Amino acid sequence: xxxxxxxxxxxxxxxxxxxxxxxxxxxxxxxxxxxxxxxxxxxxxxxxxxxxxxxxxxxxxxxxxxxxxxxxxxxxxxxxxxxxxxxxxxxxxxxxxxxxxxxxxxxxxxxxxxxxxxxxxxxxxxxxxxxxxxxxxxxxxxxxxxxxxxxxxxxxxxxxxxxxxxxxxxxxxxxxxxxxxxxxxxxxxxxxxxxxxxxxxxxxxxxxxxxxxxxxxxxxxxxxxxxxxxxxxxxxxxxxxxxxxxxxxxxxxxxxxxxxxxxxxxxxxxxxxxxxxxxxxxxxxxxxxxxxxxxxxxxxxxxxxxxxxxxxxxxxxxxxxxxxxxxxxxxxxxxxxxxxxxxxxxxxxxxxxxxxxxxxxxxxxxxxxxxxxxxxxxxxxxxxxxxxxxxxx
Length: 393
What we know:
This protein is an alpha+beta fold. The chain folds into 4 domains: 2-127, no CATH class; 141-240, Nuclear Transport Factor 2, Chain: A, CATH 3.10.450; 246-313, Tetratricopeptide repeat domain (Serine Threonine Protein Phosphatase 5, Tetratricopeptide repeat), CATH 1.25.40.10; 317-393, Alpha Horseshoe (Serine Threonine Protein Phosphatase 5, Tetratricopeptide repeat). It contains 16 helices and 6 strands. The protein has helices at 30-37, 65-79, 92-95, 99-109, 120-127, 141-153, 173-185, 248-260, 264-275, 282-294, 298-311, 316-328, 332-345, 350-362, 366-379, 384-392, and strands at residues 19-21, 26-28, 195-202, 208-215, 219-228, 231-238. The protein has a 4-stranded antiparallel sheet, covered by helices on one side. Strand 5 (219-228) and strand 6 (231-238) form a beta hairpin. Helix 8 (248-260) packs antiparallel against helix 9 (264-275), helix 14 packs antiparallel against helix 15 (366-379) and helix 14 packs parallel to helix 16. The longest helix is centred in the first third of the chain and has 15 residues, at 65-79. The radius of gyration is 28 Å and the shape is elongated.
């Protein structure tokens, strides 16, 4: 697993040292960076140096909400202990000792309600401002990933489902069992004891995000999320730095080419390599399924195709193969439902229509079968499988 090892911060010797510090000449973590830059003595050429402001806001660079919030709290600790011009050079901490002073502070802080990054709850506790109204906290993409990893540490495996994108897919007991088995079989997650949030990023349309962590002081994981109805939900875990997230498509293309050329040995090595990185890739599981189908290992092929569908219920090609495999395993009712779902999504999927018609024929539902087969031939008059099934009628 040496691929995942990271360089530690040269100050704390624990967290990932992910940025160069001009003051120390060393790579340090953002927590130690915050401890240092709060004194505003960092050289101006450093993009993380603090710029002077007259209020609680900060002009600086931060790589995550967690980092910025931590820095704000340090700023608040200093601010409440120093004379402030806006209060006639009175010290906020001293003002909070009187009722009139508290009222002036509350009136001042209420203006920050619209800025969700200002930790008003922290100010409220620090100054004992019991009457300060604080808006309810809306969970950010970072909050969701932290909650997820805390559940993993506690081994609350089932509870993690509620944090996933499309959690309703796990109403399917087979999918739920499969998900939990994969989670509990991951050698890194099952031994997780601590984590450090390194950085995060938000897409331009604010509908997707990435949160990058260091696990147990040595493994990298990037968690991808999607926004759904103002809630952030986890869509994928990738064991590596954020830079490799966009490399998944290229990796899958390499595998597809090897499969098409029947280079199974080379394909196996790539599948094995990427399986430790793109653990939630529906495409990767699909290609594993194809690999084992070519290798005539139907049981393993079925397991991987099932996982591909579990990970991406909209993956129609994988769903079609999955439904066909269910038919072969005599799970006819489940297969019918899936074929019907596929046809509803793609009314021109003649393979699924033909397969569903075959099931109808076996059930003596000839009229329904004929209707489907005729639709197939309208779309593709040369579709031989539909012609042969029509002959049976």
